[in-house]
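Figure S4 source data
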Amino acid sequence: MVVQQRERELRRGPPGRPGWSLRSYMALFMAVLLGVAALAAFAVRTMAETDARQSAGADASFASQRAAQQLKAGFDQIAAVSGPLASDPSMPIVFADPSKCHFGYAPIGAFATGHIDLVRLDGSVVCSSRKSPDTTSRIYEGQAWLLTPQPVVVAPTKDPVTGNQVVVVSYPVPGRGALAWFLDLAPIGPKLASEFGSGVHQLEFLVTTGDGKTVVSRSIDPAHWIGRNASGFVSGSAAASQPDVNGTQRIYGRSTIDPAGWRVYVGADEAAALSAADQLSNRSLAIIVGGVGVMLVVAFVVYRRIAEPVRQLSLVMRGSTSGDAVRAVAETGAAEVTSLAWDFDRLVATLKRELADRLSSEQKAVLSERNYRQLFDGHPQPMWLYDVNTLAFLEVNGAAVDRYGYSRDEFLAMTIKDIRPPQDLPKFLELTANPQPEFDKTGPWRHLLKDGSTVQVLITSHATAFAGHEARFVLAEDLTESQQLELELHQSQARAEANAELNRAKDEMMSMVSHEMRTPLASIVGFAELLVTRKVTPELRTEYLGVMLQEGRRLTALINDFLDLRRIEGGHMTMRFAPGDINALIKRAVALIGNPAGISIETRLADEMPLVRVDGDSIFRVVSNLLSNARKYSPDGGTIVVGAGVVADMVEVYVQDHGLGIPTDALPKVFGRFYRVESPDRIGIKGTGLGLSICKNIVEAHGGTISVGSDGLGKGACFTFTVPFAREANQTGDVLVVEDDSGFAHLLEAELTASGLSSIWAADAESAERLMIKNKARAVVLDLLLPGLSGEDFLRRMRATHGSRIPVVVVTQKDIDPAESLVLHKLGVSAVLRKGPGMAETAANMIAKSLAAQLVAS
């Protein structure tokens, strides 16, 4: 039945066609081909017209330049002749005796016709290039060009002698008159057209005045247009297309003539220019149409020989028997298509044999999956699958829904972390962060139900793949009463083993302590017996007592270090964390250790270090211990470097020396109790062997880490530890408490809280300054006896920076004389209290009253 259904599905084909038919692709190809051909024809026509316009514009611009050059050359030639002649000293003689005047006119450039007259100031002619001039009449009387003291060009103007439109070029003869050229304008345009015209572009030459408002000459109908208004004709830059004065569309080029200031416009007939472009585009279009026709014929042949046989083959494939495919394409198909039909026939024969086997296997797989699903859903124990990367639930069974109280949809919106109690999450995440075995059984684990209660379960899981996810299958089994009893038994055994291990550690500790204490005690007792039983000289007595004092101090340090270590490891040492300035702590430790002869301590501290969350005394002890060790284990001197910098969200402090160094095999052991490197060069160096262990416990109590590095014996060592940044929320408060005694500071904070005021504690003045800059407090409670910067100096600097409005109450053990008290009051201290019972409450009340008074005053 399954096989028959599968065959029916194959016959029907896919429910939706993923692509087009071959006919559609051929139609698309032809449409694209025609579109490309049309686009090419349009592009050819557009480029031809563009080229024609550019060619016409270039021709017009070139002709305008050449015409302007010829006209300018004519004016220059006239100037070269007339200027010296008008200023010639013999001109007065000519004016007095006209018989001595002989002028002749010859064409100059574009100025083909005209005449030259020597004119008196009253407008009468002295002599002329014309034959038989009228020398008695004042024909030029009142002409503006006759009266100007400078050479002038006037056009267009009417020649009173010939009646023609001319350009007058006048050169004044001082005190006598003028030498005037009368050049006919009508021949200028046709002459320019004959010399510089183009038969291809049918150029028109138009000369206007400098303002472009009046026609000076034109190559077309010059007699009509000379002197006409041309204000409606405006041409911009070169190669501009616009109608000429007759309305014919032309492409113009323009040039300017000096000294007349005329404009020469040369316009190419746009219609004539585009006619050639049309001829070129028509030839190109014919070529394109021919090419498209050839491509359509080729496409049709390809379709008949390849596409159509393939389509026929596709139709046959839907219900073929052996041999049908070959018969369908053998007559018209290409060799490759026929070969494909043969391959298809062989493939069909193979597929029919394999299809029944495959469908049978699929039927078995479906049956197996159904059985597995029934087993999963019907199992009485909670089961689920989750993604090992995101920890999200992928599937749960009904037992999990019933046992945990969440619906299936709620489960699928949750992660494994959501059914774990918050206190168990770190351990769970630590386990899941490491690669898990293929099969695993762990427990008991506590799981959180929807109602808030917890159950203890044993977890059995194995890796699998589910819906494309890397997953784990989990079976959660509730602990039975017997299993719980067994678990309690195992836990009791574990506690017994832990107690036994602890007792062994205590015995080992006592053995080590007794061994370490025995040496100084033996020295003290031995020297005491010598002093009691023998008579010794005063010098020996002093020496023996010095040794006893040294060993007594060593014994005291050993006992104190051991007790401190026990308190830290047992969690009995209380640490008061507060924002602290790590640079100030390091500088104080450097000042304490000092710089003995031969050993210098160099500090490398960044300027803007963030405040850190520390117990100031404890971290000061760590830095001092590391510096002391660096000095002790550098017997040959050398520089000790201590520095600090920011690494991620921590501040890293390091102490580096160039002393005896540490062997590689000893590096993992240096932080152990009573461990000391055994080597001949360390025999004379005293120590308890507990300092580094104490440092390790202090740093880890701060949430940091400590480590050591060394390249070996004689190559020095570098100790590094980290402490966290102080959180922003811990750097604000109404009142800044500056107090190195953590217990009294805690009491002050409690009293301030009772008065409705928040507070922030700084264990030294340097940290207090940083806190004031970062978030200025409204009031300050100050101790004068502080490590590092004194309370008085802090107060002076605070007043200089933040002014005198901040109330300050001093609570201190320091004995203050009247002069010091006066100085404090001048610095704006509200009250000076001596530490003792009730003083914390008094200080808090005074601060509260001062702030309330400020609020009322404002």
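Figure S5 source data
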Amino acid sequence: MKYYRGLLVILALILWAALSPPNLQSLTFPDETGDAAMAERYATWTKNLIDDGHWVEALAALERASDFADVSSDISYLLALARSHENKTKPEVLEALNMALAVDRWNLYSQEAARLEKADVLITLKAYHEALSELSRVSKGPREAALALKVFAASRPWDFHRLMRETLGLYPRETEPVRIFFHFLSNEAAAGRNPEADDLELLDLIVRRLPLLLQDNPELAWMAAPHVRDIEDARRLVMAYRAVHTPQLASLPAALMLGVINEETTLEELFNPSVKSLDLALLERVWELLRQENAREVFRRNLSTYTGVITEDSDRDEIPETKASYNQGVLEYAVYDVNQSGVQDLTIHFEAGGGPPRHALVLLPPEGATGLRFDTSRKHAAVQWERYPSVLEAELEGARYIPRPLELHFTPVLFVELMGSGVLFPRRDPLAPPLTRRVLVSQSLRVERPSLEFNGGIEVVELNQGIPVRAREYIGDLMVSETEFLRGRPQLQRVDLDFDGRMETVRHFRRQYRAVELEDLWDFDRDYDYVVSD
């Protein structure tokens, strides 16, 4: 049966290719039989799609290839690459890589390639110990060394210099380790730390090699310039870079600091209408370098009318955790991804005209000890503020949690005005207590949810300090059920089964009622002892 399912997939793809552009129609399929043979051709076909830039089509095809995943690691590996390229979540990418490694049947790629990709993803997720574990199982090489350098720079700086020295000796023409080194120096400077003797020794070696390294990565010119001792040499590096290449925004501070460009040119490039994303650290650095008051006034004016995204990379690992969207300087919404997994921890929408937060989608912490680093079972709660930070209501899994007015406060962000421009940046408050199901229940006056017994009905559970007191069910304006509680346990329920306005049926709950957590008390079982009807 599994063979025939696989054959149906191949036939469907042949039909799809026949209806697709000519470059896809030219693909052919073999007449070999067997899952492994078909999986091999399927993998080759999707790899060709990726090589031709058809990432979306390749991802769609690979997502449908589950019948082949247990006979071909290439299928899962290609799925991981496609998911990553199409900005799927990191747990989804890891899932595909783990499947590829578990099957361990390779033709186009190798186990080592999958482990390197997995280590890269784990570094993004700041799972440094797990990343080093994967790297310990691959052969030494330029990419392995570069990934290890990223781990050491972020989590083991005392070993960074030793590994950098070894890497420069083994791979003198590789540019990625040099880029990582300059990024490390920039982070140290941002933290107020001066270069150590080991840094200066490595820097001298790298500067001597720069002429060769720049051929492969011209961006190293402006990265190196702030650390070159001879100012004229540093200026020449940046001038040569700008003369030949379109300068990156990140290069503006170095060019301005060395006098390669003036303040007016800096602001023209920084706030060019084509620029749709600005880094907060870059804005702050350019602001620090401006000396003329009229230039600062232009900076503030341009920022106050900026349309686009401002990002913040709080841990300076080149992956922003916060993205705030602006329209003519007015904050519209902000997105937060603290662990850089691609799963948004918090999305806040603001009132029109730059008002306070109005509503948000909040990823709740894991419930209980799951033992999982990336728990995919976490739930989202939709929060609506009455007057920030007072919560009007929250919705979780179809239930509405309604607190007493102005009693439940949820303050996930703090607002920082940027350089006196009037533009507010919503910075995630790391000290803010997390919103949990327990907090919602304990602070709610009532919980509303769809009735479990009456289609189209609504059940309203009244609470006192998180303990249920009474539950009523309504169909429209008609109350059809009322349940009484004693010390949080349901005692009896009166029900109007014929909708005549009279509750003739009385249900008594079992006395030996199960023990539950506070946040689950309101979600009581319909475990009746006996029923009496008039």
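The longest strand covers residues 467-475. The chain has a mean pLDDT of 89.
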